[in-house]
Amino acid sequence: MGDSVDVFAAVMEPFRWIVSVVMAGFHDWLGAAGMPPGDGWTWTLSIVGLVLVIRAVLIPVFLAQVRAQRRMRLLQPELQELQERFKGRTDPVSRQAMAQEQMALYKKHGTNPFSACLPLLIQAPFFLALFQVLSGLSGASPRGEGIGALDHGQVVQFASAGIFGAPLSASLLHGGGDPAAVAVLAVAMILVMITCQFLTQKLVASRTLAGQDTDSPLMRQQRILLYLLPLIFGVGGIFFPIGVLVYWTVSNLWTLAQQFLVSRRP
């Protein structure tokens, strides 16, 4: 168990450094621009800056995702033909054969119905790194330690920083600061995250799966994703520090805006 924890920590260390370097850079820049270094909004905007950097780096991934969605649309006639051939055949053998032929079509056209999840998966290590940074503030501050590229002074500032009366390191489950302020802010951001995730999945499905049989395996998978991802964010949100919720709220707003712009294109 100890070895696996050490391996995970070693894997995450570069991501913690990247997260802390970007945040420290934005924090210093905002401080030079006149914002108080210890103010919660300075650190909040540093987290927003982290989102912008990561999402900007992911733009090529998003463009590849858009191309995959376009190929999915072009694939629809063949998928509908396949569904028509297997219509009414609900035995396990037929279902398996249909699923295999669908996967063969996806491979042939170089697309995947789950391509929309790729940016989310790529962001996961950075999200975990931010979670670890925020979770480590309370321990590092009294020990006189820094975290990654954040020196001890910045750790002390970050640990005491908050917005709307809620510390950025506090969470709905583990508390910290004013419980009412933390609860209101956390719930508000969780609701925004859930809404953004739901609307994004709806836009993706409407763009890539138009004309699909509502009882097809692919549509069932998309319906699961439509409700599963918001549920994961909703449940996970009670564990996340406010700072992590800021990250995911801004990131989900970015994703929704991107997908909305793409959905308006022919």
Q: Can you tell me about this structure?
A:
It is a multi-pass membrane protein. With 266 residues, the chain is mainly alpha-helical. The protein has one domain. It contains 9 helices and 2 strands; from the N terminus they run H-H-H-H-H-H-E-E-H-H-H. The chain has helices at 2-32, 40-57, 59-85, 92-109, 118-143, 152-160, 179-208, 217-237, 242-263; strands at residues 162-163, 166-167. Strands 1-2 form a two-stranded antiparallel ribbon. A hairpin with a 2-residue loop joins strand 1 (162-163) and strand 2. Helix 5 packs across helix 6 (152-160). The model has no long low-confidence stretch (mean pLDDT 81).
Strand fraction equals under 5%
Number of helices: 9
Measured distance between first and last alpha carbons:
52 Å
Query: Could you estimate the helical fraction of the residues in percent?
Result: over 70%
Low-confidence stretches: none
GO molecular function: membrane insertase activity
Subunit structure: Interacts with the Sec translocase complex via SecD. Specifically interacts with transmembrane segments of nascent integral membrane proteins during membrane integration.
Membrane topology: Multi-pass membrane protein
Organism: Pseudarthrobacter niigatensis
Short description:
It is found in: Cell membrane; Membrane. One of its GO terms (cellular component) is plasma membrane. The chain is an all-alpha fold.
SSE inventory with pairings:
Blueprint: H1 2-32, H2 40-57, H3 59-85, H4 92-109, H5 118-143, H6 152-160, E1 162-163, E2 166-167, H7 179-208, H8 217-237, H9 242-263
